[in-house]
Amino acid sequence: NGKKGDKSRGALVVLEGLDRSGKSSQSRRLVSYLEGLGISAELWRFPDRNTSVGQTISSYLSNKSQLDDHTIHLLFSANRWEKRSSMEDKLKAGTTLIVDRYSYSGVAFSSAKGLNIEWCKAPEIGLLAPDLVFYLDLPPEKAAERGGYGGERYEHLDFQRKVAEKYHLLRDDSWKIIDACLPIEDVQKQLRDLALDCITTCQSGKPISQ
Ligand code: T5A
Ligand code: NA
Fold first, then answer.
1. How many whole angstroms separate alpha carbon 51 and alpha carbon 30?
2. What pTM did the predictor assign?
3. Does residue 1 belong to any structural domain of this protein?
């Protein structure tokens, strides 16, 4: 770090929250905003449904297939592991990654089904640690009203309530809790300044951690 000729690295910024909390809307806007400032930024999302693991996950989420709870948990994790080295390469090359869901989703959703939370965390160990996590905080009842749930496996109010409880156990120093009840543009304004601060910190030599 800090060696002459080293390119400053990008930031790993994650958006988390219940289904319909606005993660995809906000991630897209944030990437456009950063690009507009001339900052190299890319939008990533998990599950990444394009890989073969991702297609298995997608089929499970749309109720086209059944899998044991442990098995699907490990597939969600594998879907992050298969992207780990390309994420690291991007960050080292100076690109900021705005990631729509990450390990916190993995642990919150599976433990909400009743799986042991420590067991759920284990396969995430060694993945890249986010520099910043935006938790889009929205009461489950409000989320359910938004555009209606589309019928994927986890889109039920009682289950989303359990997921919200699990998310609250996972909160750490990298988290910023954002009031996701606000209008889209107001939420976006808050994300922008916090993301820029984080990018500056990463550029000035904060190491990538696991
Ligand atoms: N999952 C995921 C696991 O179980 N384990 C894992 O490891 C991972 C990674 C699929 C499912 O997989 C689970 C979690 C999920 O159940 P997904 O493909 O990311 O995950 O699907 P969803 O999270 O369900 O994506 P959604 O599209 O439903 O939610 P978003 O992205 O949070 O919300 P968004 O931006 O699409 O907005 C939803 C609606 O609300 C409106 C939007 O216009 C849209 O209609 N909206 C607002 N309305 C009013 N005010 C605002 N501020 C608004 N922001 C957005
Ligand atoms: Na989404």
1. 25
2. 0.96
3. no
